[in-house]
Predict the 3D structure of the following.
Amino acid sequence: MKYIGEHAWAGQLGHGFALVSFAGALLAALGFFLYTRSDDTNWRTVGRIGYRVHSVAVIGIIVTLFVMLLMHWFEFDYVWKHSNTEMPLRYILSCFWEGQEGSFLLWTFWNVVIGSVLIWRGGSRKSPGWEGPVMSVIALVQVFLTTMLLGVYIFDVRVGSSPFLLIRELPENIGLPWTHLSNYLAKIPQFQNGRGLNPLLQNYWMTIHPPTLFLGFASTVVPFAFAIAGLWKNRLKEWMTPALPWTYFGIMVLGTGVLMGGAWAYEALSFGGFWAWDPVENASLVPWLTLVGTGHLMLINKRKDTSLFTMLLLALGTFLLVLYSTFLTRSGVLGDTSVHSFTGEGMLPGLLIFLLAFIALGTGMLNTDKQLRRYYFALCVIMLAMGVLLKVQVPAIILFGVTSLVFTVIAYSSGGFSKSEEERISSREFWLFIGSMMLMLSALQIITFTSVPVYNLLIEPFKHALASMGNLTHWKWLAHMAEAKYAPPSNPKLTYKTVQVPLAIVIVSLVAIGQYLRYKNTDRSMFFKQIRISLIGAFLLTAIGVFVLEYKLAELPLIGLFFATSFAALANALYIWKGAKGDFAKAGPSVAHVGFALVLLGALISTSRQKDISHYVRGPVLGRVNKDFDDSKDMLIYKGDTLPLGDHFVTFHSKHTEGVNQYFDMDYLAAEPRRFSKGDTVLVRSSLFVAKDDHTASADFLIDQPAHWQPMDSAARRVFWHAKHWSATAPGKREFALDPLVQLNPRFGNVAEPSTKHWPQRDLYTHIRYAKLDPKDSSDFMPPNLIEKNVGDTIITSTCVIVLDSVRTMRDSVTIKHLGPEYFVYVVSLKVRDLYDPTRWFAAKPISIYRLDQPVASKAVDLPQLNTRIDVVSVSGEHIGLNVYEREFVIMQAIVFPGINVLWIGCVLMALGSFLAIRQRVKRGRSATVADLRSQ
């Protein structure tokens, strides 16, 4: 059948490119492998041709997919799922990498770029001979990555997922009646538009954060490949020279990507902060931590054979952690434990094989004894066969893990990696090693808790055996394990902070002293002389910080971190002049270390002293409205009202809609000292006072009361009703405006985005928790609550108590004259009491006009004191239907983040310092190359 309007050729072209890219990567891996084994340059040519074919095919896939997205060809499943015609064109990039396939394609593209640079440079100008083994590994990575784009079945296992599938080709749609319509695209409304982009991703950060992060992920393959090459060619130290600039490039880019993710979360997500220890956040942070450790251990081993095995383990482990992070976030394992993980879509088997294959490669190559290496690879094949043929995948995986661990230990003990002599405790290499170990421990704790869902998967096949053992031994922990229901920490911030803060103190302290230490041995008197100014300055800054930020003794770990970060920032800033002689171009490490210290300092101040300034002021108690609201953190503000908020007053005066975004316009007013005049009455708790004279309020009523206020022992009830509560401040002039928004998205659900006011010393962060979101409803009230009761019944709403007192029919001569004999007027008498003040009663008499037995009109009653409107919907004898309206309001949250700009400044300095360090490393490499050529 020929389908009308389809662009099936684009899918066929894209799928063809995917097959060619896979074949090219396979040819490149084979060619470079045989070139490494035989040193025959013809095989190198084959490898290069294969890689170029692969590269061109990957570009072809990208162009094809972009054309499909730009042209809105919704017959393709990927286009339909991730875009629509209403979405702004600037988010087309976000559509490209929102899905599994697009993100894998982005990763593949960056690997293409990196591999092409390595081929162009011939592996390394200073140490030739690396192209073959390095490109063998990178091409093999590309083989696995391109399988993620194939979307083919091998037996009953799906390998990857193709972005070029037509919707009618999806397994769940094959054979459905509409697939037999030649013009289904025109006939079926669902295909006129796509589902659209996830509203969380409709933010400018999502056009720059993912490509930066994936470039960082891709860069980790270079030290991995060089480490494998060094083990393969038995050049255990030489590989570090060409790998070192790439390692620091990865540190810079991956670190920048992680921090961009924090900035995106801060600006676009409404959980109130830049970091929530979400599993996906953790999965990107952990490889960066180990990569930093790798880079610093490389610096040690360039000078001396020490901790070589640990450095190799970190170099290999960083890339493996990237693969493991990919497995966690894209296999569906995390499920609902992360706000931005993928659903899996059948990727788990392919991702698992990808991960295990490179664990096997890394572990095998660590065994420098070729006989042991062969034994290990043979065991891996046996375990693979056991998992596939016997279908005992989980036991095979566990056995594989145990075997790999055993062979890693064997590699350490028999591989000749041990150092010849112990380092002095006063040497730079000793403390760099300690710092790297601290980074490893930090990464270990994070990945341990992030992997909780994986533990449940591994336990699942053994549940019955564990339960039986638990019953026999009466060990409760076995019974608990048998349930396979381990959950991530309920309070992740506290869980991670308990371990990460002490580790951070050690790490950042080592950052402070590291550049003042000398290799092999450090003169202690000179060392302390050089750092004493920084130490004194850090003590002074910490004392000021403790006073200003009001840290208590119970917060001693936070005070310790404040001191350590201040010390690190000062020591490295001073080193730019002392060690680098003021040459900023050579001060890259110091600049990066200052940035790192400021990032931690800014995070410490902003998170430990963030303040929820929104709280219950007046109106409904939010906990009664909905259990998800917290009166200590959320505030309700009616449209037109002005309420105190921190150092300001806030007014919610209007809202407006732009496209899919509904903005809530808030004016922030200065809090000025309140003026009182003689005779003014105020309430202080439940007591009434009258002003004795004109005066300006002090900060506390108790200060003013003896001189300026006279208690009123008795007063009319209306005086109590109209008296305002005493406050020291009053709304002044408008200072600024914020407009937090809610993005309306019926498919994915509405998403709140915060609005933030920035000052040099703090941020005011606000977002909407609840609001009326119907753009077509222009009334000043929330949607009504229909209540049907009988006369004598009581109704309790969020603001008042309504007693249905009586109902009477009014059909006098005036009614008959003006309306007609067939009309009836029902008058409903209500007694209404303030829910939160039993002394405040109101009478209300809404009416309903009936024509024969049908209501035709009504007249509601407004009770502005209670922000309520009551309207009669129906009257049937003594059975009455009422619509109870509440004046329009929003529930919002506002948080002050002090010192947050310290963090963002640190981010910039980290990236700048890393760039300067990389440039300096590249210059040194070029100088060494020129010197080598001249000597020849």
About this structure: Confidence is low (pLDDT under 50) at residues 123-127, 932-936. The first strand starts at residue 152 and ends at 154. Residues 900-935 form the longest helix (36 residues).
